[in-house]
Records
---
Amino acid sequence: MKNRYIVGVLGAGNMGEALIKGLLRSQLVRSYEIIASARRTKRLKLLETTYGIHTTPDNVSLVESAHTLILGIKPQDMKAVAAEIAKKLTADHVVISIAAGVDLAKLKTLFGNKAKLVRVMPNLPALIDAGVSAICCAKEMPERDRRFAHQIFQAVGQTIDIRNEKLMDVITALSGTGPAYFFAMMEAMRDAAEKLGLDPKLALRMTVQTALGAAAIAAQDGADPEKLRERVTSKKGTTWAAMKVFENRQFWKTIEEAMKAAVQRSKELRSTKE
């Protein structure tokens, strides 16, 4: 059996590099236990010199060296990569895909029945070790491999174990797409503050710090967001006046409709890859 602690990052882009950094910082594996591949020689040299890991331009060589494979490739590249490496996969391999819209059934079609398959939906804050990754493993996955998959992504944030893959579309709409919702809210707050007279840099600084503080309180208290909102909303006060506008403009309904649209698009993307 291959060493289960040899991790291969196939397509080491931004998320792949974040995982490499997290793995080394957490000491889950050592630098000599990571091998990465990428298309550009310059990229490989950068990864090698920065992190002291092994690199290769050859995906087949990576598969032959590693036990746990993280596919950091775009969905549209999945078929070509599968054609390249599928025949080299064994029952000892664990294949982890972070490609949006590619479900376990599709992975099985592409990579065959031998390897153990994992589907993960990480999100952007993983780049700064503050992510949340939903992990859905094939039913036959041994517990030790399931645990190791979680440990990999716990190196860049929190993980959620998903046993019902149908939930992955909703998770994509919540945590995968979610950072953009908050960025949009911050953008709107900054723009409004500028229009009301604040210096642009000051408006952005205060918007970002307000968002950080609100998130920290929510994480620390563990209270329902509704309760936190009510706590800072005095009747007939300034927050109350703002919340009335949100209610009148159907803010909550808008968020719900946006998430429904994201769920639907996730389903559409999956069907186009069949």
Note: The radius of gyration is 22 Å.
---
Amino acid sequence: MPKSFAPVLLALLIISNALAKFTTPGCWGRNCLVQNDAGALCLQAKNDEAPSACSDEILLRLLDVHVHSNIGLSIAYYDERGHFLGPTIWPVPAPLPFAVYVCMTGRRSDDNGRYRTLCRTALHDDDVYNASAYDRACAVERPQTFVSDGCYTVPHKSLFDSNALTVLGGIVTVVTVVCWFLKPLKLLKGGWRYFATSRYGRRMLGVSRREELIPRAFDISLYPPGTVTRRQGNAGVDVRDLVTIAQPATALYRP
């Protein structure tokens, strides 16, 4: 290699390292960027107050993209459409050809078990101390669903967390409403079954049993004998007057 190219290559190497320089720890407000044992840059958030409501549609979209990212980097760069641009060592172009955003997620140091995710505009490399970078920022109190850089451990969701209870309550409500509507149907079904299986119901439906259609023989034992026409103890009442069906004449009895 000619000696004249050595200074040029050295200069290009220095410039490339200077461009990819979002690895410097620092603090702004109550948030800090610190390095973990593996050398990765991680966010440590600290704020006693909940984040204010955010109305920036782009930042809200980026927050959702970063929280549900399958890449698992706690700090990452995105464009305004949510396309992943690179990790912390990604060089921010200067000048910016388009809007660049950086999203960070980390454990809160002032509240154990809580996490914070924030997204803001990225102006240049190592813009932690640039106050203008935080003019457009949004944050939510929740971690990512997957983390691969070791900055923190994703908390395991309990079976009885608020979301699960909400879903369970909705299921119970739906089942209760369905059972309430099915109860009249069961009663109607039971009444129809009683009508269809009764003798008169079968006659009306034309499905009478064969034995029900056979005429029954006349049973004379259902009527009192001819010699007993007065009820004992009430001589003025004829037994035949108490019978609603007219007593027919037979060989053994004549009215």
Note: The beta strands are 26-28, 31-35, 41-45, 75-79, 84-86, 100-108, 115-121, 137-140, 230-231, 234-238.
